[in-house]
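# step 3/5: fold
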Amino acid sequence: MKNKYAELEEKNSGLELERQKLEKKVAYYEECLRLSRHRQYASSSEKSEADSRQLLLFDEAENESDVKKPEPTVCEITYTRRSRKGGSKPEDDFEDLPTERLEYTLSEEERSCPECGGKMHLIGYDERREIEIIPASVKVVVHAQGIYGCRRCERENTHVPIKKADVPAPVIKGSAASASSIAHIMTQKYMQGVPLYRQELSFMKEGIKLSRQTMANWLLRAGKEWLYPLYNEMRR
């Protein structure tokens, strides 16, 4: 019976993926039809050319995305730059950006050891880095999550409990993207009509190395994990 359920779930997942692909194709062909009619009846060729360029924006993220491309991290990029001898430069480089550090710690009451009741001490931080994009200002925000251990348990017990402070969850797990950076890229692309390659050039002029492939990956994942559920709920 379990195998039958598993087979049905797998089949259902396959049908759902196929449905999503068909919906994308229908939306694409509808847009092609709209632009075709516009070119046929438009009063000037400039409007048609503008609409044609706009059509290319729809699938730019899919074309530029590279799921095999690893997420850039400040630590990795720093190591690569210092060890490089005449090699090619990394596509994403955040090392020279101003950095803001946010530390999340436990209160005095929360530092009580669950094993022995003793007071726990700070033994380190778990850190993640996000690119925070604010119009005319870009910085790196370091989220430092306090990690606590108990000295008494370290001395007397074989089991040493660990506590961590609460920290806001990342917008995209394992990514340097923040809500503000994704919102900025989406706004520039879909509302202002600025394709990713032009955004990449714009960032380069500001001394920021953020590749179009990374931005495309962020857009696709944010759409899948945040916007699609919201869209489906609104339709429902």
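# step 4/5: annotate
DSSP finds eight helices and four strands in the chain.
# step 5/5: archive (pending)
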